[in-house]
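During the no-cost extension, the postdoctoral fellow (Dr. R.K.) reprocessed legacy sequence entries with the updated structure-token encoder. One reprocessed record is reproduced below for audit purposes.
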Amino acid sequence: VQLQASGGGLVQAGGSLRLSCAASGRTFSNYATGWFRQAPGKEREFVGAISLNGGITIYADSAKGRFTISRDNAKNTLYLQMNSLKPEDTAVYYCGASRNMYSRVFDYWGQGTQVTVSS
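Re-encoded structure tokens follow.
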């Protein structure tokens, strides 16, 4: 499955952004999907994931209460709504597809989108 994230940008602390991820190739609805991020000089960090039909979501502690993941299988699209953004959320955000969402590891991912939060 091919994935392409978009929607990043520059936002002030406390603001919001909505990222999108367009999928193509293997059947999107066959995979759990989610997001991870990587800041300069830091390790990759799991953000959250959503089940095949969108009924279950899991989040990293850093994302709980602020970020919401959703998906539209009819449009082969994944979303990440980010509210109350903080400077420490600055990173490149990637969307991924996984055979097991609880592993918090993605088997496929594409190019990311830069999110910069200014203080």
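Residues 29 and 73 are 6 Å apart (CA to CA). The longest strand covers residues 17-24. The remaining legacy entries will be reprocessed before the final report is submitted.
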